[in-house]
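User: For my dataset I need records formatted as: sequence, then structure tokens, nothing else. Please produce one.
Assistant:
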Amino acid sequence: MSPDRTVNVQDGELTDAMIGQRKKILHKPSLWVTITVVLLMTGVVLADQLLRPGRFTIERIHIHGNSARVDAQTVERTAWLALIGNYFTADLEKIENALVRLPGVYQAAVRRHWPDTLEISITEAGAIALWYATDGSALESRDYVNLPPDSNITLQPVLRSPTADRHTVIDAFLDLVSSLALLDLEVKNLSIDEAGNWVVVLQSASLQIPVELEIVVGRGNPVRKVDQFVAVFDSVLQDRLPDIERVDMRYDSGFAVQWRAGGSGVVQLAAYGQ
């Protein structure tokens, strides 16, 4: 065996011995217990530093964007009231939820900015609706509904429903806005009672004297019923819009129109099919 080869073999045997020794050390239970304890103690110390009162406090709140519907001072004050914790522990989602309850705030995004600041971006609502509870079960009988930024609404609609149907009436309202987008009509009032009967009040805002008309939907899908009305509006009713007082949609094959009868109070009815 050559000297070079002997040296290589001896080096290899020495290396294997060292590896074996290391394995024995690493498999000792006491070593892993020590490492675990050290890591746990380090975590406790770090957590204590993060959670200790007075450390890493939020000192500033910056508001981005201008809003005509809600002022920056109201946004900042609401954020401070909802803030609990410090820079690392503050619940940003809780602050965002508090902000979107403000009239005029459709969305809110809150993020941290090192070392002591919260940055708040506001998306302004396109319009604000008023919602009233009709069953008396809510602590607040009135609430605001912030409508999407692209809402093409000039009125402040009023929505009424039992508390359990709050989201139902809001969703129906948004669908009606889409259905009426091509007409000179907007939803002024939308209501559903505890029996599930719907009533829609529409208004034309472009006329010099705003004209209102009531659509009695009854039970069922109010959007489908109003779509039936919209389908014949251009060809049958548009020219006589100022004369319409009430539309009764509680029929399977059509609807009835109640005309304004002038000072005499006489009511004339005409029926149209789908």
